Amino acid sequence: MQQLEEEISSDPSRLDSPARITIPVHESGRDRVMEVPQSCYRGAEEVLDLCPGSSISVAYHPLFGSHDDLILLELDEKLIPDVIHQRVTLRGQPDEDAVFCTQSRTYAIKFVGNSNSVFLIPPSDQSKFYHNRQDCDGKDYSQNVVASVIKVAPGNMELAEVAPRLDKLKLLLSENPYSYEEEVGMDCLEEKEIPRTGLYNWDDIINKIQASDDELMSGLQALSAVEINGYWRIVDEKYMNTILRMLLHNSVLNDWSLSSLNEDEVVTVLELDGFPRALTYHCLHVYGSKVDENGKSCVWKLDERRVCIHFAREILREGKRKMEDFMKEWMQKIPEGMQASFDFLEGEVLTERIGIEKWIRSFSVSSLPASPADRFSILFRERPKWEWKDLQPFIRDLKVPGLSSEGLLLKYTRRTQPTPNAEPILSAR
């Protein structure tokens, strides 16, 4: 892109005449303007090859016009390889502002007007002008060529990195969770009879969600989604609970160590119990982690924190409980050999005192929106005032490019401290 200050000597709408634009070149305190016949028009190469201190005249291209299909995009140098190798996409529905996505990042697009004129000069191989450096009168204009302008751009698009817009992903996948009833029904239906309502494959997701591929995959993992028959699904909580309980039951029957589960053996046994292999693998991924992979079979270890959180959620799904009753039931549900800690429940529950009794209820960070404004709005509707130690678990996952955690707090909260030794109190700004 060559940015120039223009001096228009004729009406650009009169394309039947050789309208001229000249570039003033300051040389020894005076402007020098070159005039050449229209037949010596050249393309962008002539401008790109200009040496410092040299000059060139420009003129209207025969196809000069608004060309609304041509838009300038200003890029950071690190993004240029992605654009050149076509590793970028524009994503968004007709009623949404489009975003620009690379493999791993998402950018908002903003139009910025230019105070100076920006001339678009097409390459020679896309312009209809003579390539011969001699005009029809035989004169040589090799030193006095003219670059042909096809459009004057009023501005350009700029990119600003933003957080992926993943809230819609959970809404889509929640339309049709994968349940035990569906699993049983699948055995009775032919492929063409299986209903597709509320089902989304990868292509559907990238067309509907404004996020890069890597961010989308991270979002699917955060939702514990699994690909079943080509569609990404959230597995119904009750069904996941059944699979996990059956795994734990078989660990007792077969004397399996929860810190050393043989993948092949676990999958085979649960398949005999009627659970699909894909869902048994999914259960291991959701509640465990690989500790050894020797090429033949993997060894898994159940994650103490994730398993304990699962059973806490199961208890609190029915509503708030007295702390004493909750802790008693929670300890009874925890598998033998695991140690539950109340610290595991940071970002999963809220506690409150009613009279002399302490109560606990479910309030999971996973259910909160990813947008900082929406997140803080919900948090302050839940509690007008928060201590930092209580608020922090519910905002630590917020990631806004260019804005630190301290910046988020300054933007959305007001900090008060009654006394120097008192805990700071955060309220809505």
From TrEMBL:
<dbReference type="GO" id="GO:0006260">
    <property type="term" value="P:DNA replication"/>
</dbReference>
<dbReference type="GO" id="GO:0031390">
    <property type="term" value="C:Ctf18 RFC-like complex"/>
</dbReference>
<protein>
    <submittedName>
        <fullName>Sister chromatid cohesion protein DCC1</fullName>
    </submittedName>
</protein>
<dbReference type="GO" id="GO:0000775">
    <property type="term" value="C:chromosome, centromeric region"/>
</dbReference>
<dbReference type="Pfam" id="PF09724">
    <property type="entry name" value="Dcc1"/>
</dbReference>
<keyword id="KW-0235">DNA replication</keyword>
<dbReference type="GO" id="GO:0000785">
    <property type="term" value="C:chromatin"/>
</dbReference>
<dbReference type="GO" id="GO:0034088">
    <property type="term" value="P:maintenance of mitotic sister chromatid cohesion"/>
</dbReference>
<dbReference type="InterPro" id="IPR019128">
    <property type="entry name" value="Dcc1"/>
</dbReference>
<comment type="similarity">
    <text>Belongs to the DCC1 family.</text>
</comment>
